[in-house]
Design goal:
By secondary structure, the chain is an alpha+beta fold. It is 20% helix and 31% strand. The protein is built from 5 helices and 10 strands; from the N terminus they run E-H-E-E-H-E-E-E-H-E-E-E-H-H-E. The chain has helices at residues 27-39, 75-80, 137-145, 195-208, 215-222; strands at 2-10, 46-47, 56-66, 87-95, 106-116, 129-131, 149-152, 167-178, 181-188, 237-244. Strands 1, 2, 3, 4, 5, 6, 7, 8, 9 and 10 form a 10-stranded mixed β-sheet that branches. Helix 3 (137-145) crosses helix 4 (195-208). The longest helix has 14 residues, at 195-208. It is globular and about 60 Å long.
Length: 246
Amino acid sequence: MKRVMLKVAYDGTNYHGWQIQPNVVTIESVLNETLGALFQEEIKVIGASRTDTGVHALGNIAVFDTSARIPADKISYALNQRLPKDIRIQSSMQVAPDFHPRHQNSRKTYEYKILNCAFPMPVYRLYSHFTYVKLDVEKMRQAASYLVGEHDFKSFCSTKTVVETTVRTIYDICVEKTGDLICIRITGSGFLYNMVRIIAGTLMEAGRGTLAPEAVADILNACDRQKAGPTLPACGLTLIGYEFLE
């Protein structure tokens, strides 16, 4: 028996998120079914991030155990011949038997994209949030600066969040604009439920001028979800990847 780690990229448009749910198709369910058919054994993958419905990924991480003799680094090739086109394995490798992606010291990076122009562009509709209201990127950057460091992010997570602590560390957050596309890139120790989408919604309010950038500090201190901006749609969010630290 060996444990294999997969780096998984997917377009989340047609899936009900990562985690297995009754009567719907998810990334996890497709991986389990495809791996099970490939190895003729029951496979249950463990994902590092349980992305929501419509969220995309360039590098989510999953591990599974198998008794198959195929070398771990060749499994990606075999899987990609069988998976649907909107899911692709970027790499596969053998890891320690006790390696668990959610129990590792790691940095995780997300990007949220906002299309900011007069009219929607159809090719971006599945991978960004559209607004015609002109956004001030510099004000968004100023607002973002208050989020860097270790904070209680209770104001920036869904009220449905059930965790031991809402304290997280943001290592870096940047806001860049290329043409009409604004990209919010954020790296942290971990993220709460809907945290990145709420941060993006709050920064968008700062960019619209309806929220002063310095008000973000007060929102953090309030520990009140109602003080922060809206939760932006899932389509603009992409999990870029993980960096596992020793």
